[in-house]
Amino acid sequence: TDEQFDTAIVPHRSFRSAFIVKAAKIPVRIGFDKSAGSYFFNRIVKYSSSSHEVERNFSLLQNLGWDGKVYAPVLYPGEAERRKAEIFLGESGVSPRQQLLAVAPGSVWFTKRWPIEYFADTVQKLCKNFNIKTILIGGEKDRRLGDYIVSVSDGEAVNAMGKLSLLESAEVIRRCRVTLTNDSAPLHLSVAVGTPVVALFGPTTPDFGFYPWGSGHTVLYKNVDCSPCGIHGSRKCPKKHFKCMRTIMPEQVVEAVRKYL
Hints:
- With 261 residues, this protein is an alpha/beta fold.
- It contains nine helices and nine strands.
- The strands form two sheets. A six-stranded parallel β-sheet has the order 6-5-4-7-8-9.
- The longest helix has 15 residues, at 116-130.
- The radius of gyration is 20 Å and the shape is globular.
- The model has no long low-confidence stretch (mean pLDDT 93).
């Protein structure tokens, strides 16, 4: 590209992200002191591990005319996304007046996933007792999780996993009363479209700063002795018992979700 950038703001803490802006010869390079490539920056901001990620990212705007206020993240699905959501929901047999529950059972990291049988049990109980329709949200790689929940939900769940774009998913979530999710992307999509969240944390902790931003949300976290076992979770439980997620029981989650219905 012929565009010449004068400032790069780098919230990501990888070596690669820092190296790219240095290699691009961008004059002002702003990033965190905890970045693996912090020596490529010429304006370094202290990374506050006790702050929310939203607050941390805003802190990078110091000395750039920032007014000091922290603003909530917001997504704006457009008319195309609204039409797509209406068509998808209509073709899936969802009534425009029906209460909707978004459920996101997937995660890149296996240990961040609440057990799929727990999700299925929770969906069954909620659909049976509260006359709601469940919309399963996520990517193509997690679609089989949604297929399983649909197979045991007596027709009360719709699998949208892998069928919608990011903004289309956000629009569907916007229409839901609440989102039940692991510590994963749909948590933050929900916050950005104003849908309350019931978030399940296990191998990661809300203290890392990735809990739902703002008020009106619920976080369920058991704080077992071995948690957190990593900042991202892992492919398998290092202790082989998975207590951090297995001790969050479906009955507890049903009660948390019920408050939003």
